[in-house]
């Protein structure tokens, strides 16, 4: 399975992103929580502190008021106990002025704002209290302090009873003295103590304040509606915090006090803190970002490097260097990959060795050679080189007789000797069992020749294999680049042909000669073309008559295949029959011949010509079990008796597979087809076999008949052969009759049939018909 | 000191008895019981019967010995002195220290400096009403002189009872105590006495608390 280097990276998040996201999320979460809780807590704390400050301030204020209250109370009560004062009070109705003077005197001495004395029923006796207090209201007729608003000012008012007799259960009257709140409380000392802006409010109107600027804005607000002892946020030109409280609420409800502080001042420390927090968050985020990037890069970059290396391995580059990594896990991975790469290298080297070298001799093998050839042609197309193949003579026999271990050692010794010639040839290979091939780049042909001759000397000395001296020789085939071919495959073919020729011709070194084998390449192509030829009607049957010498007329014909090639023209059977036999297409050819022959027989029958047809079959056909059945079918189809057909088969064909041939022949014989042995005398035959063959006829090869009239030896051979045949009960056909003298001689020896150019050459069916009808041997034969 | 007070109280009682004895010729008798709102008897209440009809009021004799309001142990003694108007009162000052007695009551405003060897002349009280006494030097000193306009007056005893023998007739009955609260101060009742008459007088409110109990002449419990 190939690894797709374009793996869907979009669907999987990279390490960097994941680390970054995780870091960020955690950081954001933590920081947010911390910030929120801390700021919340701080805010609450600041609020609480502020509240407590306010409460303290109002306590301070209360203390100041109480102080003043005590003072006034003391002053008045001391005053009331004075006898002279009692006298004045007792005499008030008569002498108001004296009392008034005494009162005013006291007031001024004490720093009060006004003073007054009242009877027990509240009727004023004397004093300079404002109109509002012309009579003393019920609520003020009790000992204690109150706040009162009179003439747009707020006063602290002390009420003290007086008694003429200190033990009187009921007071005889009341003394009051007031102090202006503005004067009293808004002194610098008080402000210092309290520290906040204080405003005194009566009902809806702010009347006195430590910060007069606030008075007007406060009058706009309905302060009375605000809850007491609570921090409120109000708008007084700017954002303010406000705290409302009362003193002695049971004595009156209209007058109250208000602390204010600008909001930003109140929460100054808090907002500073918040700002600092924000800064910290920012810095921390940036640091986290950098850290995460650093870490992730520390992982992802090495991984990417390793991925790159792995990809190079995939592409066949096993030489990558493995850089050092800082993270141990990545280091381990890197090491593992490195080892893997080494392993791959080793195995590949081994595979290469197996694929490209011969196991026995360790020389490059055919694969290697082909690769080298292709390489050479591609990289140096201008360089001329020779491919020299040599093949050990009779190597197979040595293997069979002396054993494979000897053969192997022999090959190894040959290889050893080849190593000595390294200076001549840089590339030499061991391509098949006993074949070696050299690649010899050359520049001058004379040099090449001498180099090759050097190699001949390789076989001069015998080979010593375990004490046995073996003389070896080899045949050499040479092909040249680019003369003979410009492709690796092509040049190897030329070498093979040259080598084959050296074997056949006993020349030790044969250089490929394109002219001498004009058809060698063609031959191979012809083989394939033959198959098509059979289908494409390029083949024809020619007929050569066989003359019955006793009757003096033609009763049989031999069918001969002729091929008219569209390009090459006439291709002789000598050429294509062996090819057909090699390629196996002979069987189709034979079957075609049989069909065509039988068809022709039918045609001639209709024309009144009745002849026996002889068809040649090959060894392959004999071995083919389907042939007899086929013949039978063909006869049956045409409704022909089996004796219209004769099968001609050569001695050699039979002898190649005697048992199988016998079987086939017997079958044919049983069907009623006559059988004839062709080319008798030229092949291998055993007499014992001959007597068992179910043939009826024997054909003497033309080589004996051609010079029958002139050669005495041939005459003798023919004569003996005829006698042998007749003794065995066989008829004889003599092939190759080319003159009348031979014909007469054959007649003398009572040969039954003659065939040859003298009588007629093989002809196409129409030509034959014409000849037959016109020939004295044919239709024009006069019967005696 | 308590013995002295009791003595003083007894003396008072005796006096009133004698007084009533002198006038035993009268036909009528009022038996008054004064009690607080919780029906507890109130001791020491001054009860006065002022005739409304033509019954002549015997005046105070010219040679009548003056009543005494002493200063004993830095306290007035008696706590309450009841006199008929026209009576004089002396202030002997039995203490060894100086006192400066005064009163701002409309009935008789006065002030007397009472030094050791200077005993002022008796003061004539010729208006009816209550006179509250105080000492300028000693704030805790408190006493009362109740000036009646009738010789027929008495004080309630421990049981809150007071028996007055008077001629039959129509009278204005008034009950007074220094510690009366506002609701009871101006209360009076018109009564016809014929023979023995009994009356229960219930105060509307409890008395004020005695202010300076340490130096009080008579201790008054909670009523």
Characterization of the model:
The complex is a heterodimer of chains A (784) and B (223). The radius of gyration of chain A is 70 Å and the shape is rod-shaped. The relative contact order of chain A is 0.04. Helix content of chain A is 49%, strand content 21%. The longest helix of chain A is centred in the first third of the chain and has 67 residues, at 15-81. In chain A, the strands form five sheets. In chain A, strands 18-19-21-22-23-24-25-26 form an eight-stranded mixed barrel, surrounded by four helices. Chain A has a five-stranded antiparallel beta sheet with strand order 2-1-5-4-3. A five-stranded antiparallel beta sheet of chain A has the order 7-6-10-9-8. The model of chain A is unreliable at 1-5 (pLDDT under 50). Chain A is α+β, with helices and mostly antiparallel strands. Chain B has 223 residues and is mainly β. Chain B has helices at residues 2-22, 182-185; strands at 28-35, 46-51, 67-68, 70-72, 75-77, 80-84, 87-90, 99-103, 110-114, 123-125, 129-135, 142-148, 153-155, 161-166, 169-176, 188-193, 196-202. In chain B, the strands form five sheets. Chain B has a five-stranded mixed beta sheet, with no helix packed on it. In chain B, strands 13-2-15-16 form a four-stranded antiparallel beta sheet, with no helix packed on it. A three-stranded mixed beta sheet of chain B has the order 14-1-17, with no helix packed on it. The longest helix of chain B is centred in the N-terminal third of the chain and has 21 residues, at 2-22. The two termini of chain B are 24 Å apart. Mean pLDDT of chain B is 82; it is low at 213-217 and 219-223. Classes of the chains: A alpha+beta (784), B mainly beta (223). Chains A and B meet through α2 of A and β8 and β11 of B.
